[in-house]
Write a structure and sequence with these properties.
The complex is a heterodimer. By secondary structure, chain A is α/β, with parallel strands linked by helices. Chain A contains 13 helices and twelve strands. Chain A starts with 38 loop residues before the first helix and ends in an 8-residue tail after the last helix. Chain B is 38% helix and 12% strand. Classes of the chains: A alpha/beta, B alpha/beta. Chain B: InterPro entries: GcvPA, GDC-P_N, PyrdxlP-dep_Trfase, PyrdxlP-dep_Trfase_major, PyrdxlP-dep_Trfase_small.
Chain lengths: 518, 456
């Protein structure tokens, strides 16, 4: 095994010999497989990648007692070194641009580059959030147009645009519910959440000050309507239902659930993470939903960026619309668009629950999402949902004979196919299949979620995949299932062909090293 | 549709292979009365790339962009020059179109960037550790208050009057629901920040004091004194930095006793973007790590003993802890963290110090010139790249009228503090390395003309 050399270079991937035919190189790199040190190990004092004129004034006297004793201990690199560092690092990532990324419930679809170009127009990218409103009418119009589309696509009464991501949108929806209950003078403190829900749902409910009680599922993977009705009562503020749900299934009783909740005096929050499956096919507003966030980074293709930024506008029913957070845009009788903020909320918006973020939300995501929506139009978005659902069902039916699909018998799935690792050879599990997919050149599906299915594998191909691409993925998944059933030991050490073999997560958590120690 | 690879023939073949007569057979679980028969009426159909570009460009053209006018706005969002390589690198598809690194073996690029980012933020803030980012400065500020209350098991937070009013509004909005007690002090036009008033509010029930540094009026609080007073009562100091470039020149809050340091990272790499997406920065003492919100990247080894990185300590997080999580945050600001990190790597510590010195010098030049105008006075005893001027008349009207003359003059305190009394003549003026002598002269001339009544 290579040691870390004096410059701190990491030992290379060639050691196992599997990827390199036993050849060892002096550099530790192998052709296009390039290792990369930390920027802190590469940099040197006195180097800089930015040319700056010297300051033409000394610090003002009043500042002298505040001056930093030493500049921050950060390495300097010149521009070519910086470009190379990040380019080399980028090559250690899998991405949608490289191939299928069927991460269930994340909707990893193609990110059109027109969206990037539009977001970078100076009129959008280089405007300040507190410029006089007369100088940003176009930016406000983007917010207005996107809001109109989201309202039209969901059949809801209004939309709160400022939440910064899906979980932030959940919080917005629950705070609207809290505000509506306060306005009614009712203290309801329980939110019902299905066991299969994404972890953000119970976390958000707790964050908003509610107690969480879970709703059981039917054997067919849906909310148990009868059990839900039993839990309803004067203490229940509302329910959080994901639809389509995290098992990739539409909740056929959604309207009945909503009616029962409303009758009991509660509100219906819908987690819209999976809206991509139904956009243009059904409007949540027709199903009795009171609030639903829309992940613009899922359904409307703003890039996931290695973990954000996202955006989570929340569409609202008539009942919750008056409580929407500040700021929002409104068009005045003069034809100009205005921001409604703390000062002008007045009587018309006096019931808003307040402000969730410093400025107006994720403008850079709004421009991208609007560009995406205009490109597809109402017809194209409907086709998106149909293709996404068709692709998922194609995977489901092509693999259900080799991997158990717990809900496949009850009918078609929506946008994602759910499998279980039951029936693999002793000692083999979902993890082995996932890591095997890496060697096959694919990003793994979502694993061990939802929690209600043993060894869950949630495959969301999205509409981005071609039939030929799906056929290749299916062949790989089938092959891995067969190998795991046959007890192929080589799967335990997969991935063999990635920049790293399996990483020791236990050690990382036991003695956390969160910053460079050098 | 240019983004949809399936052909009609593919669709027919796939439907046949799964045994469905039509795609609508796949939507049988949707109640028939809720199923839409066709594209939603009243919404336009798809459009070509050229047509969409035309539409969006027309909207963009209705805005006066910062680069096309003398520009002096700050107040929590700053216009800095972002080196070209930053935007090119973040558009590498391997960064742009990846997601949260759930599979670390094929996400070492993102993970190593996050590890470097965490180290950079910690060194900038003078804290032991930092997380992998939050949504923005205002939400990071609220999360810091929640964290302080978990650590101290006390429920009263004191907000300095120098905290950005939008941050204060976010905190007060959220606290209404969690029932944390928030003590907010009224902002007044004084040369020095309200350190003494903040200290006077600290009692045995105080979980934390929240102090912006430099504050929203550009003044610089004495963090060391506030930290000492807070610690004496068992409270924590949360420092809020909305202009990280300042930390190239003034001392890091962590070195002055701050226990948690949060901030807005937009200044480096991210750009103005009309308010978002921005970048929440979050650093703290190492002993508080298990109470921290947000994702953390940690160093480990792989099966061959090679150094690698993973997301770690996820037992704090919602996907494991559900309703007992430290926060509900999931997606954060990964790509903005990358932009920040690249920009800071280009600068290095020495470059950041130089950039900060230039910012301060440009601000001095701006303030010196503007205070030569009769009736215009400087409020601050000290400032970094932003200061408050007192005008002889309502500053909000002045800003709007100057915008009509093609000058973006700053942020009026009337806009920032719409419901406060006695602040309406205040004008917050920021300068950065992008501010030219010509910009300053244009602003000064136009402001002087306006104040003496010369028509536009």
């Amino acid at each position: 095994m290579n040691a870390v050399n004096a410059a701190g270079w990491r030992p290379s991937m060639g050691d196992s010999g599997q990827a390199t035919g036993g050849v060892a190189t002096a550099s530790g790199d192998y052709g296009l497989m390039l290792e990369e040190a930390l920027s802190f190990e590469l940099g040197a004092e006195g180097k800089c990648g930015v040319d700056l004129d010297a300051a033409d004034r000394a610090p003002m006297p009043g500042l002298s007692k505040f001056l930093r004793k030493e500049a921050p201990a950060l390495p300097g690199l010149t521009e070519p070194e910086v470009v190379r560092h990040y380019t080399r690092l980028s090559r250690q990532n899998y991405a949608i641009d490289l191939g299928p990324f069927p991460l269930g419930s994340c909707t990893m679809k193609h990110n059109p580059r027109l969206n990037e170009k539009m977001a970078r127009l100076p009129g959008f990218a280089d405007v300040h959030p507190m410029q006089p409103q007369a100088t940003v009418q176009g930016a406000l119009e983007v917010i207005e147009q996107l809001a109109d589309w989201l309202i039209g696509l969901t059949g809801m009464a209004s939309v709160a645009m400022s939440p910064k991501a899906g979980a932030h949108g959940e919080l917005c929806g629950l705070l609207c519910i809290r505000a509506a209950l306060d306005a009614r003078g009712e203290e309801r403190d329980v939110v019902l959440v299905p066991e299969s829900a994404h972890g953000t749902n119970p976390a958000t409910a707790a964050f908003a000050g509610f107690k969480v009680e879970s709703i059981p599922a039917t054997p067919a993977g849906r909310v148990d309507l009868a059990a839900l009705k039993e839990k309803l009562g004067p203490h229940v503020a509302g329910v959080m239902i994901t639809n389509p749900n995290t098992c990739g299934l539409f909740e056929p009783d959604m309207k009945a659930i909503a009616d029962a909740v409303h009758e009991a005096g509660g509100y219906v929050y819908c987690d819209g993470a999976n809206f991509n499956a139904i956009v243009g096919k059904v409007r949540p507003g027709d199903l009795g939903v009171d609030a639903m966030h829309i992940n613009l980074h899922k359904t409307f293709s703003t890039p996931h960026g290695g973990g954000g930024p996202g955006a989570g506008p929340v569409v609202l029913s008539e009942a919750l619309a008056p409580f929407a957070p500040l700021p929002f845009v409104t068009r005045g009788p003069d034809g100009d668009i205005h921001l409604v903020e703390e000062e002008n909320r007045g009587e018309g918006h006096g019931r808003s629950f307040g402000r969730m973020v410093a400025f107006h939300g994720q403008m850079g995501m709004f421009t991208r999402a609007l560009t995406y929506i205009l490109s597809h139009g109402a017809d194209g978005l409907r086709q998106v949902a149909e293709d996404a659902v068709l692709n998922a069902n194609y995977v489901l039916r092509a693999c259900e004979d080799v991997l158990p699909a717990p809900f496949a018998k009850s009918g078609p799935c929506m946008h994602e196919a759910l499998f279980s690792d039951s029936g693999l050879a002793e000692g083999f599990s979902t993890l082995d299949i996932a890591k095997g997919l890496i060697d096959e050149g694919f990003h793994p599906m979502t694993v061990y979620f939802p929690l209600v299915v043993k060894g869950a594998m949630l495959v969301e191909p999205t509409e981005t995949e071609s039939k030929a691409g799906l056929d290749r993925f299916i062949a790989s998944l089938r092959s891995l299932a067969e190998r795991a059933k046959a007890g192929d030991e080589s799967l335990h050490s997969a991935p063999h062909f990635a920049p790293r073999h399996r990483l020791d997560e236990t050690q990382a958590a036991r003695k956390p090293v969160l910053v460079w120690q050098g | 549709m240019r983004y949809l690879p399936l052909t009609s023939a593919d669709r027919a073949e796939m439907l046949e292979s799964i045994g469905a007569a039509s795609v609508d057979d796949l939507f049988v679980d949707v109640p028939a009365q809720a199923r839409l028969p066709g594209p939603i009426e009243g919404l336009p159909a798809h459009a070509s790339e050229m047509a969409v570009e035309r539409h969006m460009s027309a909207l963009a053209a209705k805005n006066l962009s910062a680069g096309s006018a003398p520009f002096f706005l700050g107040a929590g969002a700053y216009r800095h020059h972002v080196p070209s390589s930053v935007d090119h690198l973040i558009q590498r598809g391997e960064f742009l179109t990846a997601y949260t690194p759930y599979q670390p073996e094929i996400a070492q690029g993102t993970l190593q960037v996050l590890f470097e980012f965490q180290t950079q933020v910690a060194r900038l803030f003078g804290t032991d550790i930092a997380n992998a980012s939050m949504y923005d400065g205002s939400t990071a500020c609220w999360e810091a208050i929640l964290m302080a209350s978990r650590i101290t098991r006390k429920g009263k937070a004191v907000l300095s009057s120098g905290l950005h009013p939008h941050y204060g509004e976010v905190v007060r909005t959220m606290a209404k629901f969690t029932r944390d007690e928030i003590v907010s002090l009224d902002t007044e036009l004084t040369a020095e920040p309200d350190d003494a008033a903040v200290i006077a509010q600290i009692d045995d029930n105080t979980s934390c004091v929240v102090v912006q540094y430099p504050d929203v009026l550009g003044r610089i609080p004495d963090l060391a004194a506030i930290a000492e007073a807070a610690h004496a009562k068992g409270a924590l100091l949360v420092a809020v930095v909305t202009e990280p470039v300042a930390l190239g020149l003034i001392e890091a809050p962590g070195h002055l006793g701050a226990d948690i340091v949060v901030g807005e990272g937009q200044s480096l790499g991210v750009g103005l973007q009309f308010g978002g997406p921005y970048l929440g920065l979050f650093g703290c003492r190492e002993k508080f790590v298990r109470q921290m919100p947000g994702r953390l990247c940690g160093q480990t080894v792989d099966a061959d003993g090679k150094r690698g990185f993973v997301l770690t300590l996820s037992t704090r997080e919602q996907h494991i802890r559900r309703e007992k999580a430290t926060s509900n945050i999931c997606t954060n600001s990964g790509l903005c963290a990358l932009a920040f990190s690249i920009h800071l790597t280009l600068l290095g510590g020495g470059g950041l110090a130089k950039l900060a010195a230039v910012n301060h010098a440009r601000a001095q030049a701006t303030i010196e010139r503007l205070t030569r105008i009769p009736g215009v006075e400087l409020l601050n005893e000290a400032y970094f790249n932003e200061a408050t001027l007192i005008l002889p008349r309502d500053a909000r009207e002045v800003v709007n009228e100057l915008a009509g003359r093609g000058v973006l003059a700053g942020v009026s305190l009337g806009r920032l503090f719409p419901v406060a009394d006695g602040l309406h003549k205040g004008l917050l003026v920021a300068a950065t390395e992008t501010t030219t002598d010509e910009d300053i002269e244009t602003l000064a001339t136009q402001l002087e003309n306006l104040l003496v009544g010369v028509p536009a």
